[in-house]
Amino acid sequence: MEKRKMYNAYADLEGYNCFGCSPSNPYGLKCEFVDEGEYVTCHWQPTGNYQGFFHILHGGIQATLMDEIASWAIFSHERTAGVTTEMKITYRRPVRTDGGGIWLRAKVTEVHKRLVTARVELFNEKNELAAEADVVYMARALLADPFLPNKVMANQDKDIVRCLRCFTCMAERAATSTRRCTVNPLIGRECEGD
Description:
Order of helices and strands: EEEHEEEEHHH
Oligomer: single chain
Strand order of the largest sheet: 1-2-3-5-6-7-4
Structural class: alpha+beta
Radius of gyration: 18 Å
């Protein structure tokens, strides 16, 4: 597969300020992603603004980078969005903020019902594996059926309200800062009325 720079459809929308990937967030990471087939990659230049200990990239920033690229890998390869439900990180080596660029790669490793797992690797300025994570996402289906986890655990698959993958939830969020769902008319209206 040919390398393809991924398009951030939300970048030009008013109010879009994602810490991980918004190009206009002055404090954000401004990540950009490339789909290279099996992997989605990101090359990023750390600065002293993101250090923990002297000249060492803060572990929370590393976690954010890994979470962000996992979401883009899942979006690209599974054509769905979702929310992080679990992230297991192993930090292996320091990542310097003054040593040059770093890079990450992520790939989808498992799809099980509504859970999608991505494996992420973060390489330091010496191109050494510095951190790795398994990130589990709950796909958008949770918006369509907020009782989905309980129904899955109770083996009530026939009662699950299925996500149509129409992307109404994603488009509405970007346009109005709320969520709407085609099959769940209550989502996004939690604060309306009495």
